[in-house]
């Protein structure tokens, strides 16, 4: 068969009953032609950026395998040997591997199956059905399961726990489910998503199951856990990790408080509230809380009651240095992960099943983790302070 075809020729041959794939099929030479054209364009682009004089220097040939058959691919060379093909890597021998990687990378960026199909068709001239793309992305599921069950470190200085909600189809109707996210900072100071869990409702009972799973996967101790104000959350944590200090998110508490304050009073109320959570010590904060109650208690008793009832866990951060306070007083660090999740899922109103959601979030985590290469700010000082504040609990892990 002629090894150079244009798309019209290929379509005419298919209509005439020619084989599409396999040996002597229509698509293999078409993919060959498209790939070689792309490589030529890539080399020409490379040559225009070269400072030293450089030019084309013939071609090399290698056998490529693809899902539609084998073909001999001619790869252009340059005289200086500085050109490194990117479309078909030096040791790559299978075209479909590259296409699958492209599909997965597009999927990890939140593209829909339709958008991925359009991209692949534009790049390679091959039409992939939604079912095919779904089959490719389903290859993530075993990796997801393995990741969910992987062993964890025995101790984490800091852990944040929060949930985000999505609509998922179940028994023919869409229901809201909570995705539970656990973000930890290890002894090396680097962030790590410890797990993703799915449940119909966010509640302390399910968090108890989540924490039990962390324990079963090797976590023996957590120094400080930062959480939102969900009722029963601190008790659930301490049921599995009795020595863990629980800090309720100050930002969540402020947001919940201001909902009950009339708009005309919010600015003044926030100014008085700031004196509490920005106080230099727990004692000073308690004096300001008393002042807040004296001034606003009759008008907004439900707000004052909430601060009083949760004060033990709202005020935990006052016992620590500024470096540690900055890390634990809010769950913003995990909410930023959830913002990344929302970017990935913003084009999806709902999901057909649990796996379709979890595999997308897993890919998002893998992308985010690539940037988590450095310890959090001022980590050496922070871990030294923790070793003193939590006497004996870090000694073995830090070889002290």
From TrEMBL:
InterPro entries: Transposase_mutator. GO terms for molecular function: DNA binding; transposase activity. GO terms for biological process: DNA transposition. It comes from the Bacteria. Coiled coil: none annotated. Keywords: DNA recombination, DNA-binding, Transposable element, Transposition. The keyword Flavoprotein does not apply. Required for the transposition of the insertion element. Belongs to the transposase mutator family. This is Mutator family transposase.
């Amino acid at each position: 068969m002629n090894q150079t075809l244009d798309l019209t020729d290929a379509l005419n041959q298919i209509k005439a009953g020619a084989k599409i794939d396999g040996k002597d099929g229509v698509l293999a030479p078409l993919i060959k032609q498209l790939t070689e054209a792309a490589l030529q364009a890539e080399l020409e682009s490379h040559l225009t950026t070269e400072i030293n004089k450089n030019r084309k220097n013939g071609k090399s040939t290698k056998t490529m395998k693809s899902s539609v058959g084998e073909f001999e691919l001619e790869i252009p060379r340059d005289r200086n040997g500085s050109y490194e093909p990117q479309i078909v890597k030096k040791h790559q021998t299978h075209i479909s591997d590259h296409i699958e990687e492209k599909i997965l990378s597009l999927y990890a960026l939140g593209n829909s199956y339709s958008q991925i199909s359009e991209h692949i068709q534009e790049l390679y001239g091959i039409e992939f059905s939604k079912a095919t793309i779904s089959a490719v992305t389903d290859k993530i599921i075993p990796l997801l399961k393995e990741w969910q069950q992987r062993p964890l470190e025995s101790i984490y200085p800091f852990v944040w726990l929060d949930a985000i909600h999505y609509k998922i189809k179940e028994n023919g109707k869409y229901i809201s489910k909570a995705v539970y996210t656990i973000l930890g900072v290890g002894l090396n100071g680097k962030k790590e998503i410890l797990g993703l869990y799915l449940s119909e409702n966010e509640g302390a009972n399910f968090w108890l199951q989540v924490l039990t799973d962390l324990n079963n996967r090797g976590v023996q101790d957590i120094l400080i856990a930062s959480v939102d104000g969900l009722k029963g959350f601190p008790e659930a944590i301490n049921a599995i990790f009795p020595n863990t200090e629980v800090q309720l998110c100050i930002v969540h508490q402020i947001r919940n408080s201001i909902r009950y304050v009339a708009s005309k009073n919010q600015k003044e109320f926030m100014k008085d509230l700031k004196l509490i959570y920005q106080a230099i010590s727990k004692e000073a904060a308690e004096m300001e809380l008393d002042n807040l109650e004296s001034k606003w208690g009759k008008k907004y008793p439900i707000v004052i009651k909430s601060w009083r009832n949760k004060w033990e866990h709202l005020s935990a951060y006052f016992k620590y240095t500024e470096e540690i306070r900055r890390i634990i007083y809010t769950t913003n660090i995990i909410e930023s992960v959830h913002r990344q999740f929302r970017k990935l899922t913003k084009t999806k109103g709902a999901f057909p099943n649990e796996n379709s959601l979890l595999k997308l979030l897993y890919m998002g985590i893998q992308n985010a983790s690539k940037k988590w290469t450095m310890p959090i700010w001022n980590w050496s000082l922070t871990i030294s302070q923790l070793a003193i504040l939590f006497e004996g609990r870090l000694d073995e892990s830090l070889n002290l």
